[in-house]
Every structure is written in C-alpha cells, then in structure tokens.
Write a structure and sequence with these properties.
globular, 20% strand, 17 helices, nine-stranded mixed sheet
C-alpha cells in the first residue's frame, strides 16, 4: 500500500472477504478519506468469514496520540451505521470530556454529509446521555466508563477508547453481555500502556505474537531501549543523554505514522524538549511503562492457553472459600485432577453477601462424592471469621480428622505463599485447566502481588479487581495437592 508506515506488530485473523474498501468509499462521501494505515485497519475490522460475520471479536490499535486513532474510530462508526446497519454502536472513553468530544465530532461528520444526515431521526444531547438515533432503530451512543465498572456498555459494536485506563471490572461487566449478540465486536484504542494498564497489557501480550483466531492487532512503536539506546535499558531518556533512541528521528517516524501528514517533525522535536522523558518515551516512542511489581504473576497468554471449556475433574477434590474485605461477595472453588493428570480449578459459587456460605459448604460436603478431602481457608483473610460456625456445623481441624470427619484446613502465611506460587507455576507450565468463568478471568486480569518473606502472595489492596475467586481457586488447588493426591501422578506423554 503506497505511503504505508508498516506497524511494528500486526495480525489479522483468517477471512474470506472484507468490507474495508466500501467503508473507505463511505468516508470519502464525507470528505474523510482514510490514510493507508487507517485503511489497513479498516480492512481488518470489516473482515468477514463465510457466514458474513466479523472474524475479529476483538481488535486493538496501539499508537501515539494524534496519529490516527480517533479518525479511524469515526470511520469504523460510519461503516457500522451506514453500511452494515448495526443496531447499537457504543463509543466509550475513560473521561466524560473525551466521550463528549467524540459525540460532537460524529454529529458534525454525519450532519455535514447529506447522504448520512437524511437518515438521522433524532440527536440526544443530554449530559451523559449523548446519542445519535437513525431511522430503522439504529443508534450510536456515547458513554464515559465509571471506576466501578462497565455497566451500560453493551452493544453490537463497542469502542473502548483510552484503553490504557481499562480496568478488569469493565471487562467483567462487558463481555458476558455480548454472548447473545449475533455479531459482536470490541475495539481497543490507546497509546502505549501506563503502569496500571493491566487490561491493555494483557491484550498486547496476546496480540503481539499474532495467531489468535479472533483478535486483530496493530501497534506502532520504536524498538525497545535495549536495542536503540546507547545505555540500553538503563537509559533515563533525559535530554542530555547521548545516544538515546528518543533523539533518533527515524525511530520517531516509525512509531508515529502521522508525522509528515498531520504532525510536523518540528512539533515533535518541540515535544521532546517540553515533555518529561518518561511521557515522551511512552507517547512518541510507544514504550510501555513497566507494571507494578515487575512481571505479572499470571501472563494473559498463559491463562488463555489453559482454557478448556469442556474440562472436567475426576476423583477426590478439595474446596476453598474466600470473601472480599467489605464482605459484599463470597466465592467457593473446587480443585482436583482430570483423567489426564492435569489440575482442574473451578469457581462453583460466586454470590453476594456471606449469609449463604455456611449452608452451601455443609451441603457440598454432604452431597459431593467422594467427600471433599478438605475445606481450605486463609485464617488471616476475611473468610477466617467463618471458623467458629464451621466447627459448630461438623468441620474439624487437621488434628481431629481421623474417623471420616470434614477436614477444615487453615493455611499459614508460608503455606499461602507456596499455594500462590504453585498455581502460577501450573499455569505457566500448562499444567492447569479452567473453564473460562468471568469472575475468575477478571480476578486473574487484575491481580497483583505483595512480598511475603522470600516469596510473594496475592495482594488485595494492589489488585485492580475482586480477587476472591482466584484466592479460592488457589487454596482449593493447594488443598487437593496436600490431601487429595494419594499416589504419584503418571508422567505426561507428549509424543506417542
């Protein structure tokens, strides 16, 4: 494609056709023709399979500000509204101001084009309820995401602008609502991630290698500092540092395809002098901030690789329970082995409050066969308050277990660290399987760690999500490994 600045990372799922060129023609009607880079992404966004459905459930565009993202999103909206006739398109942003600006831009673009304007039925300008309604029951809505979640974001096509600010709670609220939509799509748009951008970092880690069947990915960035800075990873990127990659204009152009089009090189050089080095490195070089605490304990790609919706456990199991600090939600998990020897972990209850927990645990120990080998609790956590009631209902601590009684096992801090590390190892080594549950997936996406002696454990305060489901699965897995494995597991046979 003439004039195209190739993305540093790109992947488009297999498809049989694309409506990208037709979308470009629509945009030209509005005198809003796509750049080569935007056309490349439109072709991916509107790529379809044999059933004429979008091949990309998720699409991500990661590039510095003012390069192409907002224009691209406008073009995609025109295609969804006036070509593929989507019933509900939702444009969401981290800040209310950003969603309002997007609304004003789209109103001007649509109403300024007669072919589009005559299809408009109404325009809603309410504070926080901005929307453009078309004849034929078609709507474009604009939403600001709340800190507490992504309620109200559901639609046929969802734009998640300012993706660096996405939280696990947004994803946990959004994705389950898309299951019944006939042809849903989610588009992430952002500059490089910040320290707290765990959700976007997970998308990046899945997108950069390519190969995902339903994820299209495009990212423009310079090679990492270790490859282009004289001081490597230790470079501070300050103005007085000789040999810093930030001063290499060819790298700047590679990371910013709009330089020479909508962004002048002179302006970028001015930014280099005006911006703090870390801001310039992220916004113009595309270099991501490191996550809190270094590497995430469970990498998104590893967790995805452990997904098996048909996974089933066999034989003895252990149960565990955990509660959020505000006691608003409780989770019960089960863990055991599969027939092939892999570990299976599953959340079997995730409900509001705590009043139901004791009765449900008693019911499980009475009905699950064989009887669970243990109920595991972290006594230093919120679920520690259940101890006395559990003992009153027939559970006994480790020393009193002989005789077939229900074992209640409390983990100490050292044991808890072992449990967290063991689950992380199982996931990293492909020895764990889960069935893809939103509460557990959200917990894994948002979890952070805290130091614990010479090891680490899950951290509630640092995590960007409710991690009770993950804590429960961690403890259940530990309980089964401690009390449920009565004989060595046969070695895996990789090749017959």
């Amino acid at each position: 494609m003439a004039g195209l600045v190739e993305p540093s990372f790109s992947w488009v799922p297999e498809h049989v056709d694309t409506y990208g060129p037709q979308v470009a023609e629509l945009c030209r009607l509005a005198k809003f023709a796509p750049d080569p880079e935007q056309q490349l992404i439109l072709d991916a966004l509107f790529a379809v399979d044999e059933a004429d459905r979008a091949v990309a459930l998720e699409s991500a565009v990661i590039v510095g500000r003012q390069n192409m993202k907002t224009g691209l999103l406008k073009m995609a909206v025109l295609g969804w509204l006036f070509l593929t006739d989507q019933r509900l398109v939702v444009w969401s942003a981290h800040e209310f101001r950003t969603s309002q600006e997007a609304f004003r831009d789209m109103e001007e673009l649509i109403m300024g084009t007669p072919q589009f304007a005559r299809r408009v039925k109404d325009i809603h300008r309410g504070n926080g309820d901005e929307a453009i309604e078309l004849h034929g029951d078609r709507r474009l809505m604009f939403k600001a995401r709340t800190k507490s979640g992504g309620r109200g974001l559901t639609g046929d096509k969802i734009i998640l602008d300012e993706g660096f600010a996405l939280q696990p709670s947004h994803m946990g609220s959004l994705f389950p609502t898309l299951a019944a939509r006939p042809d849903p799509q989610v588009v992430y748009a952002s500059s490089a991630g910040k320290v707290e951008s765990g959700v976007l970092r997970g998308v990046r880690d899945r997108g950069r290698p390519g190969g995902e069947r339903r994820l299209a990915y495009f990212e423009w960035c310079a090679p990492p500092p270790k490859e282009v800075c004289a001081d490597g990873e230790s470079c501070t990127h300050a103005l007085d540092v000789e040999g810093c990659g930030c001063d290499n204009l060819e790298l700047v152009k590679a990371a910013n395809p709009a330089v020479g089009k909508r962004i002048s090189l002179d302006y970028v050089m001015g930014e280099r002098r005006a911006l703090p080095p870390a801001e310039y490195a992220r916004e113009r070089m595309g270099w991501w901030d490191d996550p809190i605490g270094g590497e995430v304990p469970i990498k998104p790609g590893d967790w995805t690789a452990c997904l098996d919706e048909e996974s089933r456990r066999t034989g003895p199991v252990a149960l565990a329970v955990d509660i959020t600090p505000d006691r608003s939600v409780s989770s019960i998990a089960v863990a055991g082995r599969r027939a092939d020897g892999l570990v299976h972990g599953e959340v079997i209850e995730h409900r509001a409050g705590t009043g139901w927990v004791i009765e449900r645990l008693v019911e499980l120990f009475r009905t699950v066969q064989p009887t669970p080998v243990a109920l595991v609790i972290d006594p230093a956590g919120p679920a520690g308050s259940l101890e006395k009631k559990l003992l009153e209902r027939g559970f006994v601590t480790d020393k009193d277990v002989p005789g077939g009684k229900w074992r209640l096992h409390f983990v100490g801090s050292r044991e808890y660290a072992q449990a967290c590390g063991a689950l992380a190892d199982d996931v990293a080594n492909g020895e764990f399987r889960h069935i893809g549950q939103a509460p557990l997936d959200t917990a894994v996406d948002g979890v952070q760690t805290r130091p614990l002696a010479e090891a680490w454990a899950w951290s509630r305060p640092k995590s960007g999500a409710t991690i009770a489901p993950l804590v429960a699965v961690t403890l259940a897995r530990h309980g089964h490994a401690t009390f449920g494995v009565v004989e060595p597991v046969a070695p895996f046979v990789l090749f017959g």
